[in-house]
Amino acid sequence: MKTTLLTSEHYTRSPWKNGGGIFTDIADAHREGSPARDWDSLLWRFASTPIVAPGPFSHMPGIDRLQMVVGGRGLVLKSPTQDFDEREPFTTVRFTGEMEIVTALEAGPVEVVNLMARRGAAEVELDAIQQPGERSLPAGTHLVYAARGDCRIRLGLQDFAISHENTLKVELTEASKLTLVSGLIVLGSIRLVG
């Protein structure tokens, strides 16, 4: 097991693909040997961003997206074929980057986290853990984001404290146990495929 604490003061910022806002980039991975770390070389990315006004989402062909509101409430994603209801915080929605989506804000601005992955290169899951307890983690990369206040977790026999909005990156070569001791975390899980 390898762990890396990613602190909010070291997160980077980048524009949305459509230029409509700014991501706070928390962690990502790109194809080895790619000449540039850009959307074309992206394998997966975990980021947060405010949504302060209704507007269109970026067109991201080949990217699968998971999203969750972590601050505020009342977000709905509207597409021509269906709506994705994120009115309640810590609800995960999954959609494709090809989908035409426009946001609707029913109760003011929100803060969301996104976990994106190149289709066929990585499989991703995004969950909120709000109650103390234990869960199994498979081999792969896991991102433990302190979504509300400071959090304490246990991985195997090791204890970790994670300050608000910081992230513990956990790389596992075999299955392990994660125990939430206190706080509220968002858990992003990535498994590279192919």
Give a description of the structure.
The protein has 194 residues and is mostly beta strands. The chain has 2 domains: 114 residues, Jelly Rolls (Sandwich), CATH 2.60.120; 69 residues, Jelly Rolls (Sandwich). Helix content is 0%, strand content 62%. The chain contains no helices and 16 strands. The strands form 3 sheets. Strands 1, 11, 12, 13, 14, 15 and 16 form a 7-stranded antiparallel beta sheet that branches. A 6-stranded antiparallel beta sheet has the order 2-3-4-10-5-8, with no helix packed on it. The protein has a 3-stranded antiparallel beta sheet with strand order 7-6-9, with no helix packed on it. It is globular, with a radius of gyration of 16 Å. The model has no long low-confidence stretch (mean pLDDT 94). InterPro entries: RmlC-like_jellyroll, RmlC_Cupin_sf, Uncharacterised_HutD/Ves. This is HutD family protein. It comes from Bradyrhizobium betae.
Q: Write down how many β-strands occur, each being a DSSP E stretch of 2 or more residues.
A: 16
* Mean of pLDDT: 94
CATH class of the largest domain: Mainly Beta
CATH topology of the largest domain: Jelly Rolls
Q: How do the SSEs run, as a string of H and E?
A: EEEEEEEEEEEEEEEE
Oligomerization state of this entry? single chain
The helix count comes to: 0
Q: How would you name the CATH homologous superfamily of the largest domain?
A: Jelly Rolls
What structural category arises from helix and sheet content?
Answer: mainly beta
The CATH architecture category of the largest domain equals Sandwich
Main beta sheet: 7 strands, antiparallel
Shape: globular
Q: Could you tell me the radius of gyration in angstroms?
A: 16 Å
